[in-house]
Amino acid sequence: MRDHIRFYLGDTLYDLSGFSPTLTVLDWLREQRGRTGTKEGCNEGDCGACTVLVARLDGGPPDGPRLAWRAVNACIQFVSMLDGAQLFTVEDLRAPDGTLHPVQQAMVDLHGSQCGFCTPGFVMSMVAYRKQPGAVAEDGPIDDALAGNLCRCTGYAPIVRAMKQAMAAGSDRFDAQAAAIADRLSALRDGQTVNISGPAARLTIPADADALAATLLADPEATIVAGATDVGLWVTKGLRTLPHVVAIGQVPDLKRLDRTADGLRIGAAVTYEDARDALAGLLPDAGEIVRRIGSTQVRNAGTVCGNIANGSPIGDGPPVFIAAGATLHLRRGDVRRNMPLEDYFLAYGQQDRQPGEFVEGVTIPALRQGQVFRAYKVSKRFDQDISALLGAFALTLDDAGTITDARIAFGGMAATPRRARATEEALRGHPWSEATLQAARAAIATDFAPISDMRASDWYRRTVAANLLTRLFAETAPGARRPETRLAGRSEAAIHA
Ligand SMILES: Cc1cc2nc3c(=O)[nH]c(=O)nc-3n(C[C@H](O)[C@H](O)[C@H](O)COP(=O)(O)OP(=O)(O)OC[C@H]3O[C@@H](n4cnc5c(N)ncnc54)[C@H](O)[C@@H]3O)c2cc1C
Ligand code: FES
Ligand code: FES
């Protein structure tokens, strides 16, 4: 058992105890370390002004550890989540002899900054992007990498140009230090549970899932924090105090992503970004849905299971996974139970989870023979926006084009993510034809009675839900006319042609 956390800020090792488990990285940097280069804009993960770079050793046997670099929003990360990591801020970029980092130099050369408030955040996202395996100097992936950074004055074109110039600049000084960083992070791995009791609050970082189970059994009121992309806002915007934080983001056995005979099992600490390729390979559209969850910074921290556990009616993952037929794995002490994911969501703000119980993982089955799968996210902005609604559809078609099975789930249409049972019934056993489509469009009006809120009116939600069925028909019905139904990946010129 350890009673302090250990991490590096730049090249300096910090042993910390006696701090609040909900002290944000941003407040610690600015108020206690004087690193004011990291800016506070929105304080809720939206603007990217606070972006910092976190290096961690990922993985283990059989592939061995891998040094991973991730941009995250310091405003909604807690210092308690940094155990075992190396944190870099914009102050770390310039070499000791004053030479600018290639990204900084490119921003200067190509006029990527005016007022400069957003600039440190952009620069950190750009440094992080250069470090991603397979990063390319192309507009689409660069836009994705920078979608979580807002700029009010410069305009994005010079920043994207700067990114491209920086990509061509070769390695940076962190590349030269990679082996040394990996060694020092490896030395921090001691496999111990961390327990820090302060006067007002307590922090536990369990060494493994067993330690997590025991901690929650002993204190069922403790707050689980995975990526803190929801919980962070409870603190910065809700001003909540959390008496006992249990940080699970680095629990090794919960970070596993396993292909089993049942499909893809995603552990409770796997982030959206780390699950993205596997999900994209498993279900058509899942990769695109993940790409549109928050921003790179949000996906680098937010977990797939946190998106389920929070019970939000507008979480993007749950409807996709419900339509695919996912199974949720829950654990309380040594007792485990599995349930169809849709059964977990009981009512608004109420889930089928007992005190002391936690989500250990979720298994998403692969598509079966004859199954087609589509998922559509509808939001006001294309990037970095919460869904107005999201529809996910799994149809099984036989050789004659008859729908033998249908699983349809929606988010944003009810108080929880929910199956569209009447619509499924209208499809099952019928040929996938124009007449069946019309029956399904009528049925979906009976499945849901959505509310109006700032994201969409009830009329809009009902209309779009029915129209998503029409889109599904156009994309999947045998012999249907195939109009262009996707904007993603098309150039602006092609869209307006
Ligand atoms: C700027 C921004 C943009 C966002 N955009 C989107 C979006 O486009 N789509 C979307 O769906 N979401 C979005 N979110 C919401 C959020 O990122 C996701 O819901 C995320 O997946 C939550 O995961 P987390 O690990 O950060 O959860 P946390 O914040 O750590 O936890 C969320 C809740 O789940 C509980 N919890 C976490 N893990 C477990 C577990 N294993 N067992 C039991 N309980 C657990 C926590 O106690 C808490 O109640 C956005 C958030 C931000 C800040
Ligand atoms: S301050 Fe806006 S994302 Fe952190
Ligand atoms: S340069 Fe002013 S906000 Fe980006």
From TrEMBL:
Alphabetized InterPro entries for the sequence: 2Fe-2S-bd (IPR002888), 2Fe-2S-bd_dom_sf (IPR036884), 2Fe-2S_ferredoxin-like_sf (IPR036010), 2Fe-2S_ferredoxin-type (IPR001041), 2Fe2S_fd_BS (IPR006058), Ald_Oxase/xanthine_DH-like (IPR016208), Beta-grasp_dom_sf (IPR012675), CO_DH_flav_C (IPR005107)
Keyword field: FAD, Flavoprotein, Iron, Metal-binding, Oxidoreductase
Domain FAD-binding PCMH-type: 196-369
Pfam families the UniProt entry points to: CO_deh_flav_C, FAD_binding_5, Fer2, Fer2_2
Superkingdom of source: Bacteria
Gene3D superfamilies the record matches: 3.10.20.30, 3.30.465.10, [2Fe-2S]-binding domain, CO dehydrogenase flavoprotein, C-terminal domain, Uridine Diphospho-n-acetylenolpyruvylglucosamine Reductase, domain 2
Keyword Ribonucleoprotein: no
2Fe-2S ferredoxin-type domain ranges (all copies): 3-93
A GO term, aspect molecular function: 2 iron, 2 sulfur cluster binding
UniProt KW Translocase keyword: no
NCBIfam families: xanthine_xdhA
The protein's name: Putative xanthine dehydrogenase, xdhA
Gene: xdhA
